[in-house]
Specification:
- By secondary structure, the protein is of the alpha+beta class.
- Strands 1-2-4-3 form a four-stranded antiparallel beta sheet, sandwiched between helices.
- The longest helix has 18 residues.
- It starts with 23 loop residues before the first helix and ends in a 21-residue tail after the last strand.
Amino acid sequence: MSEYRNSIFHRTSVRQYQERPVEPQKVELMLRAAMAAPSAMNQQPWEYYVVTCRETIERLSESTPYTGCAKGAPLVFAACYRRECLRPMYAHIDMSASVENLLLEADELGLGAVWMGIAPLEDRMQTVKEIIGLPDGLEAFALIACGYPVKEQEQQDRYDEARVHYIK
């Protein structure tokens, strides 16, 4: 896998971050990448909250059993979607594509990030909604902790030829 260096083959889930802020221009590039994702009927259901407030990050890090790694992050993205989108049954798929784009751009920029799922668990969605103060009509989908990684880690090669089937 070492012959590849694009972010698809380099990105890993990073859970430890340097005490260093992420530059605003890099935050914008990650958001632009997120919003460049494909979506059903081009509905673009996404809205992103960029959280840098230490107190709010602390609360988010305690919001589920799996969000503790957000505590040391200099920023957390809250990926949300509009409930009143054209095709609500596709909102989670659209949001998944958007979050993946954000993760890939983070890696491309020398940052590390980790996707922490919130949806479709209603209690977790409600907790994040309350912490962030989301308006009615917006639903929390995921949290993405982001920052400069403490250490570089190599991506696992997950390719499994046994899972590939050709129909000729």
